[in-house]
User: Fold this.
Amino acid sequence: MLEPQVAVVAELCSPVVDTSVADVRFVAVRVAVHPRDHEAAVAAACGVQSVFVDDAFFDQCVGHGLGVGDMNSDGHRDILIAHGWWQNPGDLTSTKTWAFHPVRVKTDNGETPLPSCANIYADDLDSDGDKDLFFSSAHAFGVWWAENTGEGAWTMHEIDKSYSQTHAMETVDVNGDGQLDYVTGSRFFAHNGGDPGEHDPVRMYWYEVVREKGKAPKITPHQITVGLGTGVGTQFEIHDMNGDKKPDIVLSNKKGVNVLLQK
Ligand SMILES: [Ca+2]
Ligand SMILES: [Ca+2]
Ligand SMILES: [Ca+2]
Ligand SMILES: [Ca+2]
Assistant:
């Protein structure tokens, strides 16, 4: 797993790694390679002698929830976490600090960052010109989209709370209608029995999304019945494995290694 993580770091890092916690290059190192064991490899990938690791900052500000998407539609991909997003200045070789834009969502008790989640996707789901977010709970129940309200706290929209541990999500046009859909499922025994719903049946779903200008997105869950008893892992992949132009799902987790072919 180390090599692809280091590749991400190398893409994100400039030649100088700043130790400032406000600097995205620092955070990118933290996000992509959490274990201290990998510090030397990260430093080598970044072309520096050493990198600074602050576990307290990692736990507070990063944790679960990570994505890459163009939040401000300037053609440069930004970095998304549960607390907000860092704006890519457009030149990855510069020493510019990436501006951080906090995101809060409305709850019954006020405003909070996104719940602890898995992959985060930027997607203008209501087709009003600004980017909303699509994400799922890593260790509890919930698949949601958060509506960008332009100012103040965003509005959460619950999509599914019927199963837990949706620890990875991918986006692909499952049904070939030209609109991106989302795929997720349970990560079996993610915390070895300690998560809510961990003893429930392992399920997988794809969420068909139809976006229409000026309207809330129409999101329809479809159970992937062949995924019963498999579920996702910490990550998974979607590719057309048999060349029939329909995307298939490749999984490895505590249930084994499986390829789910779309019929
Ligand atoms: Ca951008
Ligand atoms: Ca929008
Ligand atoms: Ca579709
Ligand atoms: Ca296929």
Summary: Residues 173-175, 177, 179, 181, 208 surround calcium ion (ligand 3) (CB under 6 Å). The radius of gyration is 19 Å. Residues 1-33, 56-61 have pLDDT under 50 and may be disordered.
